[in-house]
Amino acid sequence: MIHGRTAAWLMKKILPFLMMTLGTFLVAAEVYFFEIPNKFAAGGVSGISIILSRFIPLSAETWIVILNVILLIIGFIFLGKGCGFKTVYCTLLYAGLLKLFEWLIPISQPLTDEPVIELLSVMVLLSIGGALVFRADATTGGTDIIAMILKKYTPLHVGKALFLVDFLVVLSAFFVYGFKIGLFSLFGLLARALFTDTLIENMDSCKWFTIITSKPDEICDFILKNLDRGATIVKGTGAFTGEGKTILNTVVQRSESYKLQKAIKEIDKSAFIIITTSSEIIGSGFRDM
User: Fold this and answer.
1) Where do the structural domains in the chain lie, given as residue ranges?
2) Out of 13, 62, 82, 240, which residue is the most buried by the measure of CB atoms under 10 Å away?
């Protein structure tokens, strides 16, 4: 049987790999099945490729592969090892999946005659896929590599610079594919940022417990042994009773929150618990600095 700490270590190593693989698959699927057939040029390398495919006789999938490989090479030139294994893995997997889809499931028109439904599909798949990749501290390459380079070598606000590039791509869609597709591309750009950011915050959210209890040792024992988390013990005095109190502070993942609440109530029915949601925790056992 695998020891608890060993299993946790394995999960810490394997889970990010699974997350970025699934996330990259979802991003590639939404681009191939929904963005490209509908010409939703909502920014990024996929949007640029959709525009280029109108003027140069290469498929948008092929342009995405070409541009991603070029940007990956540029990333190695300017960032070196800073480009990272995860970025290389996701970029090559993304390109490979697009060409695999193109070979196995060739499509030349939208899957449905409902562009709103297809745009919603783009939002959902891209938000989930992008959040999974980001949560694994990875990227699918493309304009993210440009962001890394800008961040390293210039004082520019990276988010604003990339949004400007994406907006220019969307603006091009109005002239190249018409007003209707241009509007869909604009909505896609705005929704992508909103949905992805919201989902990432929800995925990263943790629960901060402040526990006022008369049985701190038993609760600490549960936190340390069952949840493999730490806690901070603070001595206090009740303002109304004047009695000495013990205050425990700990942070757990959302999935561990219910277990801790249940355990506290079983150990000390009179415990007073304050639970606060935090969008990001940086430190041992959570996200790295």
Assistant:
1) 4-203, 205-278
2) 62
Record the pTM: 0.71
Q: What are phi and psi of 253, to 5 degrees?
A: -70, 160
CATH for 205-278?
3.30.70.120
**Cα separation of the two ends of the chain:** 33
Neighbours of 146 (CB within 10 A): 19
pLDDT at 1: 45
Q: What is the mean pLDDT of residues 155-169?
A: 76
Q: Select from 173, 149, 167, 148 the least CA-distant residue to 60.
A: 173
Amino acid at 97: L
31, 95 Cβ separation under 8 angstroms: no
CA 96: distance to chain centroid?
21
